[in-house]
Specification:
The complex is a heterodimer.
Chain A lengths: L1 H13 L14 H8 L3 E6 L3 E7 L5 E7 L4 E8 L5 H5 L3 H15 L5 E5 L2 E8 L2 E7 L15
Chain B lengths: L2 H19 L18 E2 L2 E6 L11 E8 L7 E10 L3 E6 L8 E2 L7 E8 L2 E14 L2 E11 L8 H4 L8 H4 L3 E5 L21 E4 L5 E2 L21 E6 L5 E2 L2 E7 L14 E3 L7 E5 L2 E9 L6 E3 L2 H4 L17 E8 L6 E8 L2 H4 L7 E2 L3 E2 L11 E3 L8 E5 L12 E3 L1
Parallel strand pairs in B: 4-10, 5-9, 18-24, 19-23
Antiparallel strand pairs in B: 1-2, 2-3, 2-15, 3-4, 3-8, 5-10, 6-8, 7-8, 7-11, 8-9, 11-12, 13-15, 13-25, 14-22, 16-26, 17-18, 17-20, 19-24, 20-21, 25-26
The chains are: A alpha+beta, B mainly beta.
């Protein structure tokens, strides 16, 4: 009952901010993602970032990495489907879609996605019923944070 | 690999294929042409690794299927250039490749059912329709398939949120996908549920606007193999060995496991896979990638780890491929999930630029690339099509009995 109410509040709060960004956005956008994905939220902090870990009812685990300055610099996901990537990648979604299509043309076949642009890195892998991915904005990754820590 | 000139080649092949692709037959006979692939005796279907119907495809196994309007033996069509995919389940065909009109599936309100299917590199959107499918003498009657069509209602935002569309020949690289993976249907129990637990593959479409709906297991797009009267517990894939790069090679898609003399397990090792997702485990350079490994003819290379872990640089022009200066030999250990058989496996990765230099080569051994994963983030060890070269590989379907027990498992 309690969680239903909280979920409802999130939905109301998020409604006026439909463009709330995730990757590259303010940490406050995490709430919009939680609402959109009807997820539960768990937060853990280290010296240089905070991890907001969501679990959707469909079994997708999403992590958003926010800097001390309050900006989401990386996201990861794992589960039987892709999460809502338009929501999760926010302003980077169209860039991702175009790069994914371009890479498929260049690959001459199907396979995992590996986008490495100066301002955006996206990795997607897996197969039907098992997908995973990671995306980050290199310039936004706080000094001292290893890419291997984003997992 | 030179994208622009390949594209020119593709146009020519598309034009050619369009002319020869469409046959009309009540049996498993096939047309031949640029899309290649086909031929049948008993439970054996010929596959060909070639450039595919769009042209330029690398490391894709193509075959043909015959589809009829349900109940008809004359309103039929044989379509070639169908990509054989052990990484998914269910038959999907481009609407543009069909001349017959399959039966639209509808819900109890009479609304047409649509489907959005996530793939690793995008999504397919289209109608759920039924056909009677025949392949190598095996029949799947009233088979729900996805008819891929970007004009079937407006693509919902919740669907396009999966990434880039793969709804036409250029993006799909095939006239369709024959998913013969470890599962009897594409979604499973989640799609039968109401509310937030529904992953949202199936849609009810009263008009141009579609909304997520529930879909019973039986109505979901089915792995056609489970609907066969016999030979319905899995498939065997046999491909010729390939050294370096070749224009094309042929192979066999054999239906059933241990049901006939030509599909016995013999000395193959059985690796059980995670019944929720079809993954097993791989150990590479002393690190266990637990429940992260899979066999997938639909991936066109061996995709694993990263440059740091493998010691191979990526290619300059094709950063999704490895480009070692000389061909590298590796050994890994595959392990059943959650436990059971283990076996070492040797494989090679060559220079991606060199291997793809000749645009006429469609069958390439040693094609590999980074797998979007690192030892700290081990999200996949993708044994794509090159794994199958020179091997006989079994894919047993979840819940179906075989001489080695019930699926799901893979064996080789």
């Amino acid at each position: 009952m309690k969680s239903t109410i909280i979920c409802g509040i999130f939905a109301l709060l998020s409604f006026p901010f439909p463009a709330a960004a995730s990757l590259g956005g303010d940490v406050s956008s995490v709430q919009a993602d939680v609402a959109k994905m009807q997820a539960t939220l768990q937060t853990t902090s280290s010296d240089s970032y905070t991890i907001h870990e969501m679990q959707t009812p469909t079994g997708i685990a999403v992590k958003e990495y926010a800097s001390v300055a309050g900006k989401v610099f990386a996201v990861t996901w794992k589960g039987p489907m892709h999460p809502d990537l338009r929501q999760l990648l926010g302003p980077y979604f169209q860039q991702f879609v175009q790069a994914e299509q371009a890479e498929r043309t260049q690959r001459h076949g199907h396979g995992p996605v590996l986008i490495q642009q100066a301002g955006l890195v996206v990795q997607v892998t897996g197969h039907m019923r098992s997908f995973a991915g990671r995306a980050y904005v290199p310039q936004m990754v706080p000094a001292g944070v290893q890419i291997g820590d984003i997992r | 690999m030179k994208p622009f000139s390949r594209h020119a080649l593709a146009s020519i092949v598309v034009a050619f294929t369009t002319v020869v692709m469409i046959g009309c037959s009540g049996s498993g006979t096939t047309s031949t042409g640029g899309g290649g692939g086909g031929g049948s005796t008993s439970n054996v279907q010929t596959m060909t690794i070639n450039a595919g119907p769009a042209g330029g495809y690398v490391d894709g196994a193509f075959t043909s299927v015959t589809v009829c309007v349900p109940g008809s033996t004359t309103n039929c069509q044989t379509v070639d250039g169908i990509l054989v995919d052990t990484g998914s389940s269910g038959l999907r065909m481009l609407s543009s490749a069909l001349t017959i009109t399959p039966t639209q599936q509808k819900d109890s309100s009479g609304d047409a059912i649509g489907e959005c299917v996530p793939f690793v590199d995008g999504f397919t959107w289209g109608a759920v329709q039924t056909v009677d499918m025949t392949i190598a003498g095996e029949e799947a009657k009233s088979l729900p398939i996805q008819v891929i069509n970007s004009n079937f209602s407006s693509i919902p935002n919740s669907c396009s949120s999966n990434g880039s569309p793969e709804n036409d020949l250029a993006d799909l690289g095939a006239n369709g996908i024959l998913g013969v993976g470890n599962f009897p249907e594409d979604c499973g129990g989640g799609c039968t549920e109401n509310g937030g637990a529904n992953p949202g593959l199936y849609y009810a479409c009263p008009g141009q606007t579609c909304t997520v709906t529930t879909e019973s297991i039986a109505d979901q797009v089915q792995n056609p193999v489970v609907l066969f009267a016999t030979d319905n517990n899995g498939v065997v894939i046999k491909l010729e060995a390939v050294t370096g790069a070749e224009a094309s090679v042929s192979g066999s898609l054999i239906f059933g496991i241990g049901t006939q003399s030509n599909n016995a397990l013999g000395s193959a090792t059985v690796y059980t896979v995670d019944p929720s997702d079809g993954n097993f485990s791989t150990t590479f350079k002393g690190v266990l990638y637990d429940d992260e490994s899979f066999l997938d003819t639909g991936s066109n290379g061996l995709y694993f780890l990263d440059s740091n872990t493998t010691g191979m640089p990526t290619c300059n022009d094709l950063p999704f491929l490895y480009c070692p200066t000389t061909t590298q030999s590796f050994s890994a250990t595959n392990q059943a999930y959650p436990s059971g058989a283990t076996g070492s496996i040797n494989f090679v990765v060559g220079n991606g630029d060199t291997l793809t230099a000749n645009q006429n080569d469609a069958a390439i051994n040693g094609l590999g690339g980074p797998g979007s994963s690192t030892p700290s983030f081990p999200i996949a060890f993708d044994w794509g099509l090159p794994f199958y070269f020179g091997r006989t590989v079994y894919t047993a379907i979840y819940g179906q009995n075989t001489p080695a027990g019930a699926g799901p498992y893979v064996a080789y």
